[in-house]
Design goal:
Elements lengths: L1 H28 L10 H11 L6 E5 L6 E3 L4 E5 H5 L3 H18 L3 H29 L3 H38 L6 H41 L1
Parallel strand pairs: 1-3
Antiparallel strand pairs: 2-3
C-alpha cells in the first residue's frame, strides 16, 4: 500500500513541481529587461531572417505561455507578453520557438519522426485506456495488452519529443549569443528559463514511462494468475 502511495505521489507531484518551476522562473526573468532592448517578436524576426526563413511569420498568440511553432502554417506564435516586451525570458522563449523553425528547415531527424508519430499518438492515447480498463475489469489480459501497446506508442512520442526540445533550446542559445540578443549574465538567465521549460517535458515523459511500467506489471500479474 505504501509503495502505491509513493508512486501516486510521484506522478502527481512531479508534473506539479515542473509547472510551478517554469512559472516561477518565467515570472522572474520576464521582469528582467534584455540589454538588446528587442521584443520577443523582434528577436524571432531577427533570427528567422538570419537563417533564411523570411517566409515564416511571427504572430501574437492569446493565452499564458501559449508560444509555439506550427510547421504546417510556418508560423511562430508568441504569447502577448513575449511578443511585445523586451525581456530575457521573452527572448529565450521566442528564440526557442524559432529553433523549431530552423529544425523544420533543416529536416531535423527527431522533429520529422515526431511529426510522423503525431497521428499515431493521438489515436493510441485516446483508445489505449478503453482497452486497458475493459481488460482490467473483465480480467482479460490480452485486451489489456492491446491497450498497453497503444499506450506505448504515446510514450514513444513523448520520448522523441525530448531531443527535439533540448535541441531547439541549444539552437536558441547559439542564435541569441551570436546575434548579440543576450550578453554576459543574461546567458545564464536565459538558460534557466529554457531549462525550466524543458523540465515540463521531462516530467511528463517520466510520468508516462512510470505509468506504462506499472501497467506492464499489472498485466504480468494477470497473465500469471491465468
Amino acid at each position: 500500500m505504501a509503495s502505491y502511495l509513493i508512486y501516486f505521489a510521484i506522478i502527481l507531484l512531479l508534473p506539479l513541481y515542473a509547472q510551478m518551476k517554469v512559472k516561477r522562473t518565467y515570472k522572474k526573468y520576464s521582469k528582467v529587461r534584455s540589454t538588446s532592448g528587442m521584443t520577443g517578436a523582434q528577436v524571432a524576426r531577427t533570427i528567422l531572417d538570419a537563417n533564411g526563413l523570411a517566409d515564416v511569420q511571427v504572430v501574437e498568440s492569446r493565452g499564458f505561455l501559449s508560444d509555439h511553432y506550427n510547421p504546417m502554417t510556418k508560423i511562430v506564435a508568441l504569447s502577448s507578453h513575449n511578443f511585445h516586451e523586451a525581456s530575457v525570458a521573452g527572448s529565450a522563449i521566442a528564440a526557442h520557438e524559432v529553433g523549431h523553425a530552423i529544425q523544420h528547415k533543416e529536416s531535423y531527424s527527431f522533429l520529422n519522426l515526431r511529426h510522423k508519430l503525431v497521428p499515431v499518438a493521438n489515436i493510441s492515447s485516446n483508445a489505449s485506456w478503453v482497452f486497458i480498463m475493459i481488460g482490467m475489469i473483465a480480467s482479460f489480459p490480452n485486451l489489456m495488452l492491446i491497450g498497453i501497446v497503444l499506450l506505448a506508442a504515446g510514450v514513444v512520442f513523448q520520448i522523441v519529443t525530448l531531443p527535439v526540445e533540448f535541441n531547439a533550446s541549444s539552437r536558441a542559445m547559439d542564435q541569441m549569443v551570436s546575434h548579440g540578443i543576450i550578453r554576459n549574465e543574461e546567458e545564464r538567465h536565459a538558460k534557466k528559463v529554457l531549462s525550466a521549460a524543458a523540465l515540463t517535458y521531462v516530467a511528463a515523459t517520466a510520468v508516462a514511462v512510470l505509468e506504462l511500467l506499472r501497467l506492464v506489471l499489472i498485466y504480468t500479474g494477470m497473465s500469471r494468475n491465468d
